[in-house]
Design brief:
- There is one protein chain.
- This protein is an alpha+beta fold and 331 residues long.
- The protein has nine helices and eleven strands.
- The strands form three sheets. Strands 1, 2, 3, 4, 5 and 6 form a six-stranded antiparallel β-sheet that branches.
- The chain is globular and about 60 Å long.
């Protein structure tokens, strides 16, 4: 298990790091909701300006991404901004977006606020479909070199090993949990056979998407990677199969104004859901030595949580065994 924590990242070090790059901080540091990294909002004077700017600094968790992988994330953001796609891109300091101070890698962003996405709002979902079509048009122009792909190995096989070594799963549940997990992985592996991989946002959920006026924008590309286009769409699908179908039709109609979509990727929805479910459990397990996780996810160490996950895996297996969702109504 990864044992790194952010205990040495104290306010004085953060302020010194910002000052080192010419930021005259004029406010306190407001910790924002982030567990993987450490993110703070603040105001500072920059480049001799007469008014302070509201900014956000993100200190990256060491050993998660390499410097090359982080720089690729930033380059993707810059490409999107250049194409007038609304993404919050890093600020540059002497031409560099990835900064370093006393062993920590960090980045400074402009602070942007807005309303969160309403997944039951058709107008917003239509805008999101259009936005993703434009993003994927850029994403398919060239590959990531350093950043990883969304794969069975990364999200299921590696996660299974992490969970096999986890002592928080109660002994009385172990056989049922391991059996359900093995069956889900086998079925998801059989079905997850993407034919086209592109650069993606990778973590396209409502918490990462905001609206100002009529324009959506993403504030975080931290999980961008290579994968099938469906990865950035399926998390917007909720409700029963009919509701999911209607949402898909709405989003894809707008999406395809900018980028073609292979309907064969509809068969990837449930494998991708299984991959996210299992990877999330393993992510919490990997971070359990970080006290921020122990404090904010106390239910992870309870028998009730693992009983629920055992049931969720069985339900996901049943979803994987259903006919693939299509744009043709079920009769």
């Amino acid at each position: 298990m990864q044992r790194f924590d952010f205990s040495t990242l104290q306010p004085d070090l953060i302020l010194d790091a910002l000052h080192h790059y010419g930021l005259d901080v004029s406010s306190g540091l407001l910790a924002l909701n982030s567990y993987e990294n450490r993110v703070y909002q603040f105001s500072a004077y920059r480049d001799g300006g007469s008014q302070p700017q509201k900014l956000v600094v993100k200190f990256y968790r060491p050993e998660r991404w390499s410097a090359a992988q982080i720089i690729e994330e930033h380059q993707f953001a810059f490409e999107l901004v250049e194409a007038d796609i609304p993404v919050v891109a890093p600020l540059l300091f002497a031409g560099q977006s990835l900064l370093e101070y006393q062993g920590f890698l960090f980045t400074v962003f402009p602070s942007r606020g807005g309303r969160t996405l309403e997944i039951d709002n058709d107008d917003q979902l239509a805008l999101l479909g259009r936005f993703l079509g434009r993003m994927h048009l850029i994403g398919q122009k060239k590959p990531f070199i350093a950043r990883p792909s969304l794969s069975i190995a990364s999200h299921l096989r590696d996660s299974q090993q992490v969970l096999a070594d986890l002592d928080l799963i109660p002994a009385y549940l172990r056989p049922a949990f391991d059996s359900a997990l093995t069956q889900v992985i086998a079925e998801a592996s059989r079905q997850y056979q993407p034919t086209r991989l592109i650069r993606l946002h990778g973590d396209c959920h409502a918490g990462n998407l905001f609206y100002t006026g009529e324009s959506p924008f993403f504030v975080d590309l931290d999980d961008c990677r290579t994968g099938p286009a469906m990865q950035d769409i399926w998390m917007m699908l909720s409700g029963d199969r009919q509701q999911q179908r209607l949402t898909l039709e709405l989003m894809l109609e707008e999406y395809e104004q900018y980028c073609s979509f292979d309907l064969a990727e509809l068969k990837l929805i449930e494998p991708l859901r299984a991959m996210r479910m299992v990877h999330y459990m393993a992510w919490l397990a990997r971070r359990w030595q970080d006290q921020a996780f122990v404090m904010n996810f106390p239910w992870f160490a309870t028998d009730k949580y693992w009983e629920q996950q055992c049931l969720a895996l069985k339900e996901q297996l049943a979803l994987l065994q259903q006919p693939v969702l299509s744009l043709t109504p079920d009769y």
